[in-house]
Write a structure and sequence with these properties.
Structural class: mainly beta
Number of helices: 1
Number of domains: 2
Largest sheet: 7 strands, antiparallel
Distance between the termini: 50 Å
Shape: elongated
Order of helices and strands: EEEEEEEEEEEEH
């Protein structure tokens, strides 16, 4: 039962929403069971309606950031997947997304890495080497 949190702090149970539609003000109007209508501001209300399923053990998100000029990586276990029309998206323990650009890849239980563009790498080291090469290219173009 995903909840929809409105900007003012109210939470709606998505299972009670019959219909929602955007308003000219930018808010959304939610028609709930029991002939109740509530309006409020929320980002991506449709996300609450995509199913979430438990993840098998062993998947991790790979987040990348630059801190004090140094590339760092953070690995978080995937606890569930959100099933969306555009693909399945990981929900990681401790929340998703680094400051730079969100999760960069998924580490599979086999050790294989699949980045957000669908590129496959045999290991974390191979993935890190590709990121270092991209960083080097970006830095040389900036200079």
């Amino acid at each position: 039962m995903p909840l929809i949190q409105l900007e003012d702090g109210r939470k709606l149970n998505s299972e009670n929403v019959i219909l929602f539609r955007p308003q000219k003000s930018g808010a959304y109007e939610f028609c709930l069971s029991g002939n109740v209508t509530i309006s409020g501001f929320v980002d991506d209300p449709e996300m609450a309606f995509f199913p979430i399923v438990p993840a098998a053990v062993g998947f991790r998100t790979v987040e990348k950031d630059i801190v004090n000029g140094e590339r760092i990586y953070t690995f978080k276990p995937v606890v569930a997947w959100r099933l969306c029309p555009g693909g399945n998206y990981p929900l990681a323990a401790g929340g998703n997304y680094s400051e730079e650009d969100g999760y960069a890849a998924i580490e599979c239980p086999s050790g294989e890495i699949i980045d957000v563009d669908g590129n496959r790498f045999e290991s974390v080291e191979e993935f890190k080497a590709m990121v270092a090469e991209e960083d080097e290219d970006r830095n040389s173009k900036a200079a």
